[in-house]
Amino acid sequence: MSKLDPNLKLNQIHIPGTHDSGTFAINLVAIKRFVETQNLYITEQLENGIRYLDITVSFEDIGDEIYISHNFIPCFTRKNHKLYLRYVLNDCMKFLMDHPYETIVTHISRENVDRDTITDYNFDC
């Protein structure tokens, strides 16, 4: 994205993105094919040119964590751990540090998370 005309507005740029970007690992076999919309992990999506991430989150009462979900179904990491929002944000931050002239646009929508929880959430990655 560093080669783009700096006078372009965001709505004038074609940004490659993925829908339900975090749904690359669903552990419920019976519904996996209905909710798993990606086959690459976030870092792999970024390395392959994706710059718009569509993330849906839910709130975990135990441990006060926000995790990536699809219709309230949790998404997982390669190591079979629940995919927490902080993991995704850390991956994005690392990618941007490794590629300082790139940009990532992230749309975060919430399922069972109220606005105050998202606002107060500790985004210190």
TrEMBL record:
PROSITE patterns cross-referenced by the UniProt entry: PIPLC_X_DOMAIN
Please give the superkingdom of this protein's source: Eukaryota
| A Pfam family recorded for this sequence | PI-PLC_X
Q: Which GO terms describe its molecular function?
A: phosphoric diester hydrolase activity
GO biological process assignments: lipid metabolic process
Supply the InterPro entries for this chain.
PI-PLC_domain, PLC-like_Pdiesterase_TIM-brl
Indicate what this protein is called per its UniProt record. Answer: PLC-like phosphodiesterase
Q: Which species does the entry assign this protein to? A: Neocallimastix californiae
